[in-house]
Amino acid sequence: MITSDERRARAALTRITEPGDVVLADLVDAHGAKAVVDGLRDGETFARAEARAWQVRLEGYDPDADLDRAAAVGARLVCPGDAEWPERLDDLGGVLSLERRRVVGARGETAVRRGGPPIALWVRGSPDLAQQTATSVAVVGSRAATAYGTEVSGEISYAVGRRAVTVVSGAAYGIDVAAHRGALAADAPTVAVLACAVDVSYPRGHAQLLERICESGLLVSEVPPGSAPSRIRFLTRNRLIAALTGGTVVVEAQLRSGALNTARWAQQLLRPVMGVPGPVTSALSAGVHELLRGGGAELVTEGSEVLASISEIGDNTLPLRFGETRPRDDLDDSTLRVLEAVSAGRPVGVERIARTAGLTLHDTELRLGRLMLQDFVERSGDRWRLSTAARGDVAR
Amino acid sequence: MITSDERRARAALTRITEPGDVVLADLVDAHGAKAVVDGLRDGETFARAEARAWQVRLEGYDPDADLDRAAAVGARLVCPGDAEWPERLDDLGGVLSLERRRVVGARGETAVRRGGPPIALWVRGSPDLAQQTATSVAVVGSRAATAYGTEVSGEISYAVGRRAVTVVSGAAYGIDVAAHRGALAADAPTVAVLACAVDVSYPRGHAQLLERICESGLLVSEVPPGSAPSRIRFLTRNRLIAALTGGTVVVEAQLRSGALNTARWAQQLLRPVMGVPGPVTSALSAGVHELLRGGGAELVTEGSEVLASISEIGDNTLPLRFGETRPRDDLDDSTLRVLEAVSAGRPVGVERIARTAGLTLHDTELRLGRLMLQDFVERSGDRWRLSTAARGDVAR
Q1: B292 to chain A: which residues are within 8 Å by CB?
Q2: Is B302 on the interface with A (CB under 8 A)?
Q3: I need a surface site. Which of A68, A301, A307, B29 has the fewest CB within 10 A?
Q4: CA-based nearest distance B274→chain A, Å
Q5: Tens digits of per-residue pLDDT, B94-117?
Q6: Domain ranges (residues) in chain B
Q7: Edge-to-edge strand list for the sheet holding B377-380
């Protein structure tokens, strides 16, 4: 559990610094956010040139104002230590220390220094962030998408949404918006990770879409209420999309494209990266083709292939065709315990399932996601129950 | 060297049997064609049910009639042992013995029994078959191609043709014809491997194209003059396209497509297989995408990528961007000897180069092809000379 002082200090840091600051993340990790903020107030600069600007912004700042402003639009600050903090985000720390070592002194350093784990996340919408993203896939691509690209983005997102896999994207024009709309068309909650604040409509034309997204899903941002997007915030936002999800699908991307940046983050985080091919005569597919040619990315043509790819995570057995069921005795012990903790009757919450199975929440969520992909269980709101198939065939 | 009796016996076998017969290929390999034909004439059946039909066809047959008929249209019979027999074709023997072992008794057996090395090839056109295909790539795909597919087929074939890489295809509608036309547009000889005889225009609408192809390039077939195409001849033709070339590019292909059959042959022969992606919404790209998803095939978007892929064969150094030159001292000893045997002045024939370099013809051709890809040498008709770049910079 996180103290209210620590939460307020993290709110302050999201207000006075830019997202993804690696050195700051290390400082917070070592000393706690409150100690860092108190230090800044006392004139400590932590050997950072930026510290002076931080201190100026901190003068007279009251984090409760931001927390209240967030609450007023149904948003909250989610911090490491909160139950709904997605453990996946911690992977960003690991990648960074590795990356940092590799590029010290090189030109790429500035970009890499912007890849630290988030200090906290402003989240708007009712679902639990960790649960909503436990079984999820990023669907990203160019703003200047073609009709082909938006069609495929929507189709894939609809298909994975139908299987209760959460589509995460950036609410930008083109591929992103088609992805969110596809998921919504499948009545699946979707998550938009924004470069602006969760109470800012950017792009302006998406105000209604953003409202619709957070009716059932979530808006997520590293920057506090009222903040506008910026170049650096777009880039750091990409790493969050990659880190929050079980894999990234790039639908259309030019050769230099933010979507490829998201894909590279996913690769560094060892998440599956998928690419949707297109005509070789289309500049908007050139980036995807480069990704597919470079190896490391899997060519996908439809939702079922995306589902198969993300369902393989941590699963060393042969990939199942999605929706294919597997006999219970093929499940490992822990997964079997999770399955047995799910009732055939009333849906059960994940905490209770975790308690019954004797596993951590994170572990339980992962296994529930996999059981869902194999059609053993289904989600009902926040809760879980046996699938129709599993109920009809409890003996298998 | 092959005796005239043996050549006549092979001509007879192409007349009385269907292409690709594995058992027949083994018999001929073990006893020679003449002994097999003599045996059939003497009533020997070699334990083959088909032998009776062969014997009937053999009655009163005179191979000289076929050889004369071929000569009348500028065609000849090329046999193993002839200087222009492509050594690559012998790889079919190796694949087969492996495949045969794998599928004995299985349903696939009939198809595999149709994959033996050719007994001989009917070839029409002036270039030397081995030299013309030494640096070559197959460009194949669906008959019912889209405008997109034919455009890309033509573009790629034009680009590789410009670099003196021979485009080999099947002269069918759609992708094939676009490939041949692309090569011809680059003034590059192209090779059509036919399911009918080299003096038969099939499809009828391609009569003029076939004439144009064999003005500078070659028509190749396993069946003797006057023969019509058949289903089995289309399938066995595919293996020849794969075996004759340094790699196979599939441009558009439906899920069950002859082009995929060619690709599988190329894979079994350990030749690089490449696929051109297209819209995932196009049924004509579905087969290519499956090929690319299955692994083993490389996604290519343009001619330079095809050239890079086939120029890597047997080359363990880093792939060069096509057209990029490499200092002479990066060449291995044998390749350097080939290069030194090529004169800066008058073009030299490959036999003389092989003699000077002290290498086999096959080995010399391979190395010449690679040197050409690296812009050290260029082809001038049947002969070779130093490229402009290499002449201007003999010291490098």
Answers
A1: 277, 292, 299
A2: yes
A3: A68
A4: 11
A5: 765 555 444 444 444 444 467 889
A6: 123-311, 328-392
A7: B348-349, B383-386, B377-380
